[in-house]
Amino acid sequence: MKRLSVVVLLLLAAGASVLAAWRWCSSPPGGGREVVFVVERGWGASTAARALKDSGLVRSSLYLLYRARSLGVSRDFQAGTYLFDSSMPPDSILMAMARGDVIPEPTHWVTVPEGLRLSETLAVLSACLDIPLDSLEDAAADDSLVAALGIPWMEGHLFPETYEFADTLKASEVLARMVCTGLERRDPSWEACFESLGLTGASAVILASIVEREAKLDSERPAIAGVFLNRLAAGMRLESCATVQYALGEVRERLSYADIRTESPYNTYLHAGLPPGPICSPGLASLEAVAHPDTAAGYLFFVSREDGSGSHLFARTLAGHHANIREATQGRD
Prior knowledge:
By secondary structure, this protein is mainly alpha-helical. Helix content is 47%, strand content 9%. It has 14 helices and six strands. The protein has helices at residues 2-26, 45-54, 61-71, 90-99, 118-129, 133-140, 143-148, 171-185, 190-196, 201-214, 221-233, 241-248, 284-291, 318-328; strands spanning 34-39, 80-85, 107-111, 162-166, 301-304, 312-315. A hairpin with a 7-residue loop joins strand 5 (301-304) and strand 6 (312-315). The protein is elongated. The chain starts with a helix and ends in a 5-residue tail after the last helix.
């Protein structure tokens, strides 16, 4: 009987200890300390439990893991930034992560205009988002990122738009969002139009980038696209000043004869066909102009008026082009 009493007392003591441990594990650490807690994408219950324990928000990671499984939320944690309090019960923390009760992340608005080359776009992003320029350059040069996005180059694919970017985005995530935005905005019917013109999706972007840099008025973009397509069909060099400026690495108000003799695969005064890649990021208007060009007019030449209007004079013949040049440059010293 005495031995039985001892066993009973030991069992009661053990039960009391287990109950005390349970109550201790299930109670919050206390102290009212606020903690900004970040749940990364792909986190499961085990990872979240360890991180919460390390942050001082729960007493036991094992208890939290048990509760996550009991509540059926061990696979449902939503990525984001949370504001927790060390006085919150573990169950409340788990359910907040399952619901996705994230706090709003600080954001930045960035406007990327049409016609910027890759280096210019990265400089704008770096200045506005406080992301080191070299991080953006490394991401843009990452072949695995380019391949994952399904594009041949990063140049020409950072879609010009006004964006709201969260403060927490990495360089690669910023670039990926810009590329995906551009791909989503394209009219699906354009692909068939490009194919009918003998263009691939990649070559269409190259041509659209030239149209973007040459055209000032949306109304003239189809005609300018038509000029370049007519020249390609006739076996003529494109002779685009915009491609020479890309080869020079700067925009010059007026090109010299020495400039247009600059050796570069991007110099379409020297080399036939399209350049090897885009010269800027075109907007939707230039892409649409390439999909629906005005080739029927038969124009092979154009020259910019020098009256500040941004418009051009178009011609079908070299003689007509020379006449347009004289008209466009009247009054020039």
